[in-house]
Amino acid sequence: MTNANTKAATIHGDMKRNRLVLVSHIIIWLVFLSIPGFFRPAGPEGSHGTDIIDDIFIPHRIINGLYLVFVFYTNYYIAIPKLYEGRRYMAYGLYILGIVAGLIIINFSIIQYGYAKMPPDSLFVYLGPSHNLLMFIITFIFSLVMSLYNELRKAKEEKLNTEIAFLKAQINPHFLFNTLNSIYSLALTKSDKAAPAVVKLSSLMRYSISDSDKVKVPLSKELAYITNYIELQKLRLSSKVRLQYNVSGGGVLKEIAPFLLIPFVENAFKHGVNAEEDSVIDIAISIADDKLLMQTTNNKVYVQQDEEARTGLGINNTKQRLKLLYRDKHKLVIDNGDDCFKVQLEIYW
């Protein structure tokens, strides 16, 4: 029932967004096509308002306007992706010649059938009014720029998603090695903690394999992963480490992007644990109806770091994921002090 409700809500949200996009496109086109009316001399009453509206709905204006709409969307959705980006430049050149020829044919027919009159000595007599060519060029260039911009954005997102998939699909090898060593030590002493530790580790690996490719997962799964991760980390912590971990609030039915919270927890252990120094790690997660709040704090200790740790790849990629998946629905504050590292992350549902 929960999955059905979630799916229905997703479909409803998509339909609402599609309607919003359609309405916005219609408004933009009406504004764009009415621009020439603003530059016409005012009517007898000195007002442009009625003249502009009437100007849009003149038959030859409607025909030219619909043709510009046709040019924009065929160029954006068909010609550029299939011809220009497919390196079929000759075919794309023929397409350009075709749409220019279409503009000439349409306006020649309009003049021939008497829908509009043009001075016989006009330079653009077969292109309709003088602004037709300018609006045609603007429409063509804008569709080209928009399409190329979207391709660059998609390429950036694909690169980011590839990096994310790589990070999500792996468990930190140092953590895995240390955990296996701890479990091995527990097994040698026939400790009752050995079996639960194996179960927790298998749960982490199952989550990494089965849920890493999903867009969103139940929040409960992400929290379970963090809890198991911290429990396994405890196996190797000495008495010099003071660890506090607390989860409060409800939100069991909420969903979140997988592996979105764990990098900050991993970072706290990676930079905040040294067997020879006193270490403090505080991790608090609170869930409300409107948002999730995560706070991590660790004091900085000396740790020999690998390349990934030095570059902060995990946190940097998480920042990009947050921008991509929760654009205006998150707030991330990182305080990288001399002795302490603090993270406060808010995600709004």
Using brief descriptors, characterize the structure shown.
349 residues, alpha+beta, Heat Shock Protein 90, 5-stranded mixed beta sheet, elongated
Short description:
With 349 residues, the chain is α+β, with helices and mostly antiparallel strands. It has helices spanning 2-38, 49-56, 59-84, 89-112, 130-168, 173-188, 194-210, 219-234, 262-272, 307-311, 313-325, and strands at 217-218, 241-249, 255-256, 279-287, 291-299, 330-336, 340-348.
Any overview of this molecule?
- There is one protein chain.
- This protein is of the alpha+beta class and 349 residues long.
- It folds into two domains: 15-164, no CATH class; 169-348, Histidine kinase-like ATPase, C-terminal domain (Heat Shock Protein 90, 2-Layer Sandwich).
- It is built from eleven helices and seven strands.
- It has helices spanning 2-38, 49-56, 59-84, 89-112, 130-168, 173-188, 194-210, 219-234, 262-272, 307-311, 313-325, and strands spanning 217-218, 241-249, 255-256, 279-287, 291-299, 330-336, 340-348.
- Strands 2-4-5-7-6 form a five-stranded mixed beta sheet, with helices on one face. A two-stranded antiparallel ribbon has the order 1-3.
- A hairpin with a 3-residue loop joins strand 6 (330-336) and strand 7 (340-348).
- Residues 44-50 and 307-312 have low confidence and may be disordered.
